[in-house]
Structures are given as C-alpha cells and as structure tokens.
Design brief:
With 318 residues, this protein is of the alpha+beta class. It is built from seven helices and eleven strands. Helix 2 crosses helix 4, helix 5 runs antiparallel to helix 6 and helix 5 packs across helix 7.
Length: 318
Amino acid sequence: MLSCEKIWFPFIIFETSYYIKLRPDTKPVHQIYSLFRGVFGKKLKQISCALKTQKSCLDCKLNLSCPYGYLFETVTPPHADKLKKYPYLPHPFSFYIPYPLPQEGEIKVGVLLVGKGIYFFPHVVLALKMVSENFYPKRFESFEFVKIFNPLTEETLIDSEKIQIPDPVPCDFKPPETLKKIKIKTVSPLELKFQGKVVFPESFNFSILIRNLLRRGSTLSYFHCEKEWNLDFKKVIELSEKVVTSQKDLKLVKVKRRSQRTGQVYPLYGLMGEVCFEGEILREFYPLLLLGSFIQVGKHTSFGFGKYFYYCPTKRRY
C-alpha cells in the first residue's frame, strides 16, 4: 500500500552548528524559534531582493524565482489546480531547533529544503552564516557559526571557496523484515491538529500522527515537486486506527512567537517526549514514518517545530 517509491520526492537536509552562550541572568530562551526564523528571514531577504522598491513580495513579478519570495512568501504555483481546500501553502523549507535550548554549548539547527527550494541552497547557506553576526546580544553572550554538514554522512558541505548543492536524500531505505513495535522521540515540539483542534498528550494516538504526516507530505510533494500522491487516503487512515499506542510519556510545552510585523507575542504549543506504537501492520507505515522523520510534521515547521526520531529493533533514524 505505502512504499518509498510512491511517496518520496526531492529534498535535502543539512545541519548548521552554532556555539551559543546565554547571559548568566537569562532564563531559557523559548523565543529562540521565532527569533532565529526572524533573523534568518531578514538576512535572506537582504541578499535576495532585486527590487528593493517593491512594497509586497506577493505582488512581485520575481516572486517565484527569488529565494526569499519563494521560501518565505510562498504563493500558489501556476500548475496547482487541485488541493484548493488548503488556504495556506506549506513553505518549501523548515528548521528544527532542539528543545530545550542549553545555557551554553554547541547546538545543531537542522534545515530542510524541498523541490525547487533545493536550488536556493547557496542563498540559504549565506543567510545562515550571517545569522550569527548580530543575533540579539541582549540575551546571548555569543552566538557563533561553526559549520554546515550533512547529518547522514557527517560530511562538511561548504568550504572557503565554493558552495555546492548536495544531492537529494535518496529513496533507498528498506523496511525491517518484521516490525511490530516502534518508538517515536521528539526533538522539537510537535503541534498536531485533529478536527481543527490542538492535540493534547491524553488524546494523541498513532492515527492522528499518520493523518498529519499524510497532509504535510502530500502538500509538499504536490505544490513544490509537482508530484501528486496516488494513495487511497481513507484506507490508509482506517488501517492506522488498528495500531495501538502502547506507551506514552508526553508533555505539552509552550514557547513564544513574536510577530515581526505587529510586535505581538503569541503562544505556540507542542508535544515533547516519547511514545511507543505496536501492531501487526506497523511495517505498512514504515515508509511514511521514515519520510516524516526527515520532513517533520505538524504546524510551525518553519519555526523549528515538528522534528522526531524513530527507533525500532533493527533500525534507528539517525
């Protein structure tokens, strides 16, 4: 039913390493998600915008070919004549930032670029390096760029002379011969929704995770890779309801987001912890769980939410 060949699409992942040190009187910086995205967006726009006098990116004729316009002010692509029920398009990029943030030490900020977004890798790299130049010194004694590397191979992706676009993550992952139990561990908060409402720890289950993975994966694939998933979504969801959520150690965390335009602060909620699933049919969902561990899941992925790892008897990602 589900296979990597059916659902895979072009994307790259990489991680940026920074050395940080918070000021002694600074509490844990839960606004890091909003702050990092805001500074990165400003730097990317600074190196990307060719029409500085244009008031709105959405009305700019260069929007689809501009790194900032395409990644941050994502508009409906010309080919999109389906999935019109989605009022907002998914961004072709996302971050993941580990939670909670340490007081001092090295942190790894993960980055995902999907479809056409891959070609803007050099611009993204330059903006990520520029982030550390003036990163809110009121909270940090230091925020220093270290390196950019491929987390799957540990290969450094840039040097002093050139920036090369890495190859997309290949579709060469095989599921275990048998799979009856799998554990999901969150790296950054997961804000999932079911029937229009935020999912709390007590109501979280495998089917809700699968619904959110189907939504995110299919929209990224369609809008940014021009590949529509040929799946019986109803059947997949019905089958997911047969998987048991056997153990659950989740808590709801809250972080803050400050709007760059209005200055208002909004709370963002997400699930942190571990959860185990069991079932005779778990192997059917391995390709989707694998893809989700790369592309993240849920809301606010462009702020750093939605990253998880999975563990099963014979495999670990990563």
